[in-house]
Amino acid sequence: MRPVRQWLIGTLAAAGLAGGCAVVAGLDGDRTMESPGSGGAGTSTATQGGAGHAEGGGGQRDGGGAPDAGGCKLASFPAPPDVANAGGSVEVVAAIRALDVGDTGTTVGLDLDAKCTCEGDGPSCRHPDWMAEDACDGPEGRDARTTEVFRQLVLISGGSGGTDDFTSTAELGSWTMIVRVLGWNGLPDDDRVTVSVFPSSGLPKADKPPKWDGTDRWPVPNTAIAEGGAGVDQPRYVDLNAYVSGSVLVASLPESEMLIAGSSTYVPVHFIAGFLTGRLVDVGGKWGLREGVVAARWKLTDIFRSLSAVKVAGNRLCTGDPYYIGAKKILCELPDITGALASPTAECDAVSVGMLYDADPATIGDVTAPFEETSPCDPGKDPTNDTCP
Question: Is the torsion defined by CA of 374, 375, 380, 383 positive or negative?
């Protein structure tokens, strides 16, 4: 198995679709991200164009892609294809193998609020009174403030967490997120497919490391099954109206969940009003995803719940601890977006999410009880119950 670093760092170049609209960038660098089983076919060069900004997040696909009123191009996903009732029976099941959370300087995320804040536009929400100043967007209006969340996670945890660590642990089978596509016609354009996602806390110890050939059976928690559902055919996190445009999968997810594990950090993440994209590629006769993008919103209340799982020098963070005080001060300066569609006068209560991923063929395994860790903090010092400022 080649080194994880070689697997992670690659060229994920993006070229514009639909008349030069904004593009979704991939991982930086001049090396290739090879597909296992592909024989090292060379550089990935997806055309993840920007033909319809993610206005408001969570479902609007307006087919725009033009600069906003301030003249800034907005990074987005491809518009729906010009086909109707394509239909098909191809199923894709792929598991995340590499994850870039933007903490090392790569450009991640999509525009979520139809604004280029600090580039001619004002903010899309009112920053809380405790914040010193508004947060500026990334290039082309990209909303991805979680890059700073993960930078701070690496610092306070002594190196655990972040792109390198998350990719290494995924490679070894400690966690993943499954992307399942149903009803695809197998062609570059399909106007309607069903996309569901399932978090996984990793393979059983006896099955590690994964083979990454489609035979690995990843267990998924019952929290990813719809209420009253009998199994993975009744998923909780699903888009019944997803599509494929130019071989790029586009799905809207009102909510989704990831269970990201670092070498000594477990981060349960609950996203809302999000999008997932990825270029469908042949991987040894099965299907995988390349240049994948996760763009969403992470509410402050959910981030505090996640903090209860972070370790510092082997110990959990509890409110009042020196490390926690510093981390909270930084976190409370990060909200840049609302957790739902709202006017610019609504208070920013969430942090925008931007991630890149690659996923390889997989199999969905058993439905199990969710993985949970009980906080060792006293009830009054559990970050779950904390708020800003």
Answer: negative
What's residue 309's pLDDT?
72
Long-range Cβ contacts of 58-61 (<8 Å, 24+ apart): 58/252, 58/253, 58/254, 58/272, 58/273, 58/274, 58/340, 58/341, 59/252, 59/254, 61/250, 61/252
SS3 content of the chain, % helix, strand, coil (to 5): 15, 35, 50
Inter-residue contact 316 to 276 (CB < 8 Å): no
Cβ atoms within 10 Å of 141's Cβ, excluding its own: 30
* H/E stretch holding 268: strand 266-283
pTM, to two decimals: 0.82
Query: In 143-226, where does DSSP find H-type helix?
Result: 146-156, 163-171
What is the number of helices (H) and of strands (E) in the chain?
5, 14
pLDDT bin (cut points 50, 70, 90) of residue 378 is confident
Q: Give CA 383 to chain center in angstroms.
A: 23
Using one digit for the tens of pLDDT, what is the confidence trace for 70-123? 568 899 999 999 999 888 999 999 999 999 999 989 999 999 999 999 888 889
Grouping H, G, I as helix, E, B as strand and the rest as coil, residue 358 is strand
The conformation of residue 301, written as its DSSP 8-state character, comes to H
Q: Does the pLDDT value for residue 41 go beyond 50?
A: no
* C-alpha torsion angle, residues 377, 380, 386, 389 (rounded to 10): -120
Relative to beta strand 217-221, strand 363-368 is parallel
Residue 262: name the closest of 158, 165, 164 by CA: 165
The candidate with the shortest Cα–Cα distance to 175, out of 286, 275, 302, 309, is 309
At which residue do the structure tokens 């109206």 appear? 241
In terms of DSSP bridges, do strands 238-245 and 190-200 run parallel, antiparallel, or are they unpaired?
A: antiparallel
Kindly state the tokens that stand for 111: 């525009």
Is-contact 297 352, C-beta < 8 A? yes
Residues 6+ apart with CB under 8 A from 189: 81, 82, 83, 86, 244, 245, 246
pLDDT in tens, 148-158: 988 887 877 77
**Calpha distance 41→300 (Å, rounded):** 42
